[in-house]
Amino acid sequence: MTTEKQKRDKPWIFRTYAGHSTAADSNALYRKNLAKGQTGLSVAFDLPTQTGYDSDHVLSRGEVGKVGVPISHLGDMRALFDQIPLGSMNTSMTINATAAWLMALYIAVADETGAPRTALTGTIQNDIIKEYLSRGTYVFPPKPSLRLIKDVAIFTTSELPKWNPMNICSYHLQEAGATPVQELAYALATAVAVLDTVKASGEVDQAKFGEVVGRISFFVNAGLRFITEVCKMRAFTELWDEITRERYGITDPKQRLFRYGVQVNSLGLTEPQPENNVARILIEMLAVTLSKNARARAVQLPAWNEALGLPRPWDQQWSLRMQQILAYETDLLEYGDIFDGSAEITRKVEELKTEAREELKRIEDMGGAVAAVETGYMKQRLVESNTARLEAIERGEQVVVGVNKYLETELSPLTGGIDSIMTVSEEAEHNQIERLNAWRAQRDNKAVADALAALKRAATEGSNIMPPSIQCAKAGVTTGEWGWTLREAFGEYRAPTGVGNAMRNDVEGLDDIRADVDRVSKKLGRRMTFLVGKPGLDGHSNGAEQIAVRARDAGMQVVYEGIRLTPEEIVDAAKKEKAHVIGLSILSGSHLPLVKDVVGRMKAAGLDVPVVAGGIIPPEDAAELEKAGVAAVYTPKDFELNRIMGDLVRIVEKKNSLTNA
User: Fold this and answer.
1) How does pLDDT run across 308-338, given as a tens digit for each residue?
2) Which residues does residue 299 pair with via DSSP β-bridges, in sequence order?
3) 3-state class percentages of the chain: helix first, strand second, coil last, to nearest 5
4) Is 538 a catalytic residue?
């Protein structure tokens, strides 16, 4: 007896977020992953590239090739995509402030290799608003940044009709502590801000505007609250259809589709018992694949050991195999939406939609997403939500297996040995700078000057930024030169930190610590002062913000000026503010050179103040930092912020010989 075989849906695009060290090394990794069955590329760029600096800039020190691939010019982009057919590849590029530049470099390589612009398929993130709120790789103020997004959207819709010019990214909002309602509202408010900018420009008619709307995509996060995440995605699809139809008059149902890719939650990955992360990643993937009507178009999964350091190719392969097993070995793709008709799902979706509409209305009333960034409203709400999440974990109200419950464990065979994570060679930065200098020496300087002048004119006169950016790419302009030219035209921006000055009065469990801070402050003769600094280009400020908030609530005088500070600026601030202890937060893997630089400058300035460091810091690096004079090192396993506050008090007491005073 035979049965008719069910027709299977086409799987989503399988991606792995990757890039490190050099363009050549990253290219080799991409080609290896494609050979293993990956069906799309997801490019991670290093922090200098993301923030518009060349690899030899002072702020780039220690950051080159650490969290992604360094791309300083067209030669690097050629090497990155060597032997990869751009005309048939689906490429996602996680780039924001410098999105127009990286897009220009990508187009220049496609032109060189004969790939038609009309065939190029992929996505550029190009979402600056969430950078002000969470990830921190912004450069320019909000309004000119929106103008750049608009230019890319209009240019690509005409020249690269298969390309998604903006991938509105709620992923990092959840990483920064966003609730599902905030993730919905802030991402949709961002989309509204961009589309309003496009419409107000007068550069497209309604038909072309519909094409712009139809090319907007989203990049979301999926956490462990499985049912809520399924409902969040269904709410996203319904709200987007509603906004595009009612606000913008889009009549074509295809142009109203909520098209999204996803990376599941990295925030919830744990350093203790990291093998538990495999189950977390799999469950989170189900939240964005089970509901056919709200299924992701592309999925990329973190590796199980990302809380420990940079994953190896084998770790990335494990995550890719999870996707392939779900898509090819199960019957998931043989059925319609299994949640249709569920009363519980419908109830939760409607609840999320109602609350998201209310939050969208609040943002609209204050002038839209840009105003909500500039006033600090959205950032403050995220800091508050993240504070509540961390406090729930500390109190045991939110269980994290292996962290605050079920701590007993066997030794893991996966984490033994010196090669349990991948490290970036110290030579990578030196070699990248040598290649950059060689590139500058061989190019036509007149062509470079002419291209930069055309870029400056476009920026100041308001014409589309993409054609002169492509001209710059082909002339040999570097990332730093492109970035500096637009800095001159638009200025730079420092976003609100979301960390207020006033102490909260509703924090449980702080009475003893507040008493200790008061006691030590009296002995010091003034309020104990804690300077929180983020040296280098790492913009992931969640940890620094939460430490600053808790220290403030514990009664300390907190100095926190946000992200992207040079070691020199941090030392100057410590001297000016007469800090009693300095906390350095670095999550990019650049902790050794940056912390040592700060400590060395302090010694040179005659500043004898204890330094503590936090980040994703392997044990051997922690030992090296402590040997260099760092008083304490904290990693993701140190989630008890009150204990850290107690440590800071004792460190200051000991340094100032107050223990017996």
Assistant:
1) 877 888 998 999 999 999 999 999 999 999 9
2) 14, 262
3) 50, 10, 40
4) yes
Helices of type H across 479-510: 479-490
Catalytic residue among 57, 232, 474, 540: 540
- For the four alpha carbons of 567, 573, 578 and 580, in that order, the dihedral sign comes to negative
Strand-pairing partners, residue 193, are none
Record the tokens describing residue 349, joined without a space: 């979706």
pLDDT of residue 238: 97
pLDDT at 3: 47
The answer to whether residue 534 is catalytic is yes
Which pLDDT does position 308 carry in this prediction? 83
pLDDT at site 6? 60
User: Known catalytic residue: 430?
Assistant: no
Quote the CA–CA distance of 127 and 167 in Å, as a whole number: 6
Residue tagged 């269904």 (tokens) = 234
pLDDT at 66 (0 to 100): 87
- 540 noted as active-site residue: yes
Tokens of 203: 């550069």
Low-confidence ranges of the chain (pLDDT < 50): 1-4, 502, 661
**Catalytic (active site) residue 580:** no
Which of 85, 102, 100, 114 lies closest to 43, judged by CA?
102
Separation of alpha carbons 629 and 458, rounded Å:
50
pLDDT, residue 2, reads 42
Burial pattern 392-428, b for ≥16 Cβ within 10 A else e, equals ebbeeeeebebbbeeeeeeeeeeeeeeebbbbbeeeb
Confidence at residue 652, expressed as pLDDT on a 0 to 100 scale: 95
From the list 25, 106, 36, the residue with the least C-alpha distance to 66 is: 25
- Catalytic residue chosen out of the listed positions 25, 54, 56, 538: 538
- Say how far apart CA 481 and CA 452 lie, in whole Å: 8
Rg (the chain; Cα; Å) = 25
Structure tokens at 523: 């002995």
- Strand partners for 121: 90
